[in-house]
Amino acid sequence: MYNIVLRGSVPFCTLVSFDLNIPIIRYSGFDCYAFVESSENHTAIVSTYLGKGAREFQFLVNTDTNINPIIITSSEEDQTLQPDSVSKPHWYQRVGLYR
Known about the structure:
The chain is mainly beta. The protein contains one helix and seven strands, in the order E-E-E-E-E-E-E-H. It has one domain (2-90). It has one helix at residues 91-94, and strands spanning 2-7, 13-22, 27-37, 43-48, 57-61, 71-73, 85-87. It has a four-stranded mixed β-sheet with strand order 6-1-4-7, with no helix packed on it.
């Protein structure tokens, strides 16, 4: 499990998704799996399973990013923070049915 931290200058909410490819059923797309609201300091911390290999995440925010730019990090320091949302692996990630 790893923390991904989103920081803004005003409150925001986000849907969290990642690119999902399951060759056995010929599925390819994005899996929306979490919803997070920023805290009082305009930070949203998502603890998520990364799995094998590279992953592409999408964060769909309810704010104008020209006015409220969202900075996304996952540094060593970020790993020590208490998450606002914890997303355990899906069953198909546990058995390796993804790429």
